[in-house]
Design brief:
MFS_trans_sf, 48 residues, BnaA04g21000D protein
């Protein structure tokens, strides 16, 4: 499940939706947040 989130968000952040700078930044921030969440969950459980 975590791997699917990470792969999906990685690909989606590379495909920035829209042509407006604000839309591109919003898309990048949204998917980068979820990519960080996908990476952060396994790291927190392994360190604890």
């Amino acid at each position: 499940m975590t791997l699917m989130v990470m792969v999906t968000c990685s690909v989606a952040s590379g495909l920035s939706f829209g042509h407006e700078p604000k839309a591109v930044m919003s898309t990048l921030c949204f998917f980068r947040f979820w990519l960080g969440f996908g990476i952060g969950v396994p790291c927190a459980s392994l360190c604890g």
